[in-house]
Design brief:
Layout: H1 3-14, H2 21-31, H3 33-41, E1 50-54, H4 62-66, E2 73-78, H5 81-90, H6 92-96, E3 100-104, E4 114-120, H7 129-139, E5 140-150, H8 153-157, H9 171-180, E6 183-191, E7 200-207
Parallel strand pairs: 1-2, 1-4, 2-3, 4-5
Antiparallel strand pairs: 5-7, 6-7
The structure holds S-adenosylmethionine (SAM).
Residues 13, 15-16, 28, 32, 54-57, 77-80, 83, 105, 120-122, 125 line the site of S-adenosylmethionine.
């Protein structure tokens, strides 16, 4: 792959933008389906759960999350204006009914307000994971959980498009960073590569008691 093309793909994955954004959304939907199914299964929500998703892309999997429980409330935050627009358009009814709230990642979220936070294929774009993890910890309720879906280091490191924009970290590095940020890993799941998809990891972490 030519390096300019790899850099364009990386920039789109980090923050889909411009006329390519809707296409990127669909490409990600296809490639991340299995990882999402496993991550959503790990949410393990009860009645009236407040779920936060960070970096939801075009939100095509929102229905799967809402279907977990009719009383669940979902807040999605995104840094891409195009992805925000696509999700707002697709889920207008659910937004109007108050089941989904879609917000720009620039805004502030109230402390201690979510039962579970979800981030799929987002942590590679965090420049300062301690800051992002501290923010997730802040917005979780006591006893809340953080479900992370991501690709193994070895898989991403072999991809030409991860040479720019991505901050690749090994699994042992993530374990240490989660621990330093005050999280305890409760569960680690390995997701085998389905046809046309990459292998994945789904970890569930919870804030340690202080
Ligand atoms: C590689 S895409 C993954 C999209 C979707 N989660 C998926 O797996 O198909 C990364 C997404 O996270 C968003 N993003 C990156 N950093 C973010 C941040 N700090 N807060 C919120 N969204 C972020 C990007 O705009 C992009 O839509």
């Amino acid at each position: 792959m030519k390096s300019w093309l790899a850099a364009q793909i990386a920039a789109q994955l980090r923050r889909p933008h411009g006329w390519l954004a809707p296409l990127m959304g669909r490409v990600m939907n296809r490639g991340n389906r299995t990882l999402y199914s496993h991550a959503i299964r790990s949410l393990q929500v009860g009645p009236n759960a407040k779920v936060l998703e960070v970096g939801f892309g075009n939100g095509s999997h929102f229905r799967q999350i809402l279907d977990l429980d009719p009383t669940l409330h979902l807040t999605g935050i995104e840094s891409s204006a195009e992805m925000l627009r696509l999700a707002e358009r697709a889920f207008r009814k659910e937004i109007d009914k108050g089941r989904i709230e879609i917000l720009s990642a620039d805004g502030d979220l109230p402390s201690g307000s979510f039962d579970v936070a979800l981030a799929v294929n987002v942590i590679y774009f965090w420049q300062d994971p301690h800051e992002n993890l501290a923010e997730i910890r802040r917005v979780l309720k006591p006893g809340g959980r953080f479900v992370i879906g991501f690709r193994p280091y070895e898989t991403l490191a072999s991809m030409p498009f991860t040479r720019t924009e991505f901050n690749l970290r090994t699994e042992s590095d993530w374990r240490e960073r989660l621990q330093v940020a005050g999280f305890e890993i409760e569960r680690e799941e390995t997701v085998s590569a389905a046809a046309g998809e990459l292998p994945g990891l789904v970890w569930t972490a919870k804030p340690c008691k202080v």
